[in-house]
Amino acid sequence: MKKILVTGAAGFIGFHLVNRLVARGDAVVGLDIINDYYDPKLKYDRLEHAGIRTLCIDYDTLVNSEQHPNYRFTKIALEDREAIERLFEQEQFDAVCHLAAQAGVRYSLVNPRAYIDSNIVGFINILEACRQQQVGHLAYASSSSVYGLNEKMPFATSDNVDHPVSLYAASKKSNELMAHTYSHLFGLPTTGLRFFTVYGPWGRPDMALFLFTKAILAGEPIQVFNYGKMIRDFTYVDDIIEGVVRVIDHPPAGNPNWNPQQPDPATSKAPYKVYNIGNQNPVQLMDFIEAIEQALGRTAHKEMLPIQPGDVAATYADVHDLVEDLGYKPATPVRTGIERFIEWYRNYYVGAGF
């Protein structure tokens, strides 16, 4: 049994990860500030589903789950250095999975400071706390967005990622650089996780599958950017979680063959590693929409629009390192994942008009 901190525990991926870790017997502490980037009710409902009563949640206070005796939750802002330091000193975590962040590419165009506060200031607080308390492994969420202007497909972790096209992507690239520094200077094992378009039950309302499903059921038009000429490596949340758990259990030891004359960005002589976690099976956006239509039994009214600032036209994950090091490759078909999401959506939004 390990004691593991999961930040972003009220979020989409964090919720699923907590459920997986407590089910296998780990002692888990969840942390989240529960902000209003999207409907906080969904976040509180995720916590309730894991046995954390909404009425019991208070700032900087650990709440015991009524469902899992090995799960506790606390509401803390990543920017609150003193509260973060207290938690780490008190709990002495074996590992940390840092998923909390200000998410969203488009939102970074209108509220950039939120990304600096959460994704930069918050991340240095996590790094420092891990260093001070000698945490055995820090795994953290990066993003496929770091590939930016890259057009070589599939995206490989050995590729240069120096040309992000959104502040969100730049903040995630910054996290990778900061993590390497701590791995190099202090021997802190760190692993970055570049997620590719995660979807599934309990998903985020600002993501395409959620937006499309809601609009189609309401008889409203869906916004189709880049006139439908988008490709995404949609990755089902259970596949993401399997990859994350395997990463948590395998802290990097450093690459003895790392060559400073031809440096591999994904590894280092230090205990540092970056992985892609993607389905390695990119799907045309119009095919994705068609699968949603078939699962709902309805046709979408499509509003064709140009590509949005900060977006990229295509993503495609090379997961060779994930397979080579951890023996794992995501494989859930998109149509299967969509059907599972819509089943959850119908159950969650009872009486939503369908």
N- to C-terminal separation? 44 Å
| Continuous helix count | 10
The number of E-state strands comes to 14
Round the Cα radius of gyration to an integer and report it: 20 Å
Overall geometry comes to globular
**Main sheet?**
8 strands, mixed
Strand order of the largest sheet: 3-4-2-1-5-6-7-12
Structural class: alpha/beta
Mean model confidence by pLDDT: 95
Poorly predicted regions are none
What is the string of helix and strand elements? Answer: EHEHEEHEHEHEEHEEEHEEHEHH
Q: How much of the sequence is in beta strands?
A: 5-15%
Q: What is the share of helical residues? A: 25-40%
In brief:
By secondary structure, this protein is α/β, with parallel strands linked by helices.
Q: Mind sketching the topology for me?
A:
Blueprint: E1 3-7, H1 12-23, E2 27-31, H2 40-49, E3 63-64, E4 71-74, H3 81-91, E5 95-98, H4 112-132, E6 138-141, H5 167-186, E7 190-195, E8 198-199, H6 208-218, E9 222-225, E10 231-232, E11 235-236, H7 237-248, E12 272-277, E13 283-284, H8 285-296, E14 302-305, H9 320-326, H10 334-348
Parallel strand pairs: 1-2, 1-5, 2-4, 5-6, 6-7, 7-12, 8-11, 9-14
Antiparallel strand pairs: 3-4, 10-13
Helix pairs in contact: 1-7, 3-4, 4-5, 6-8, 8-10
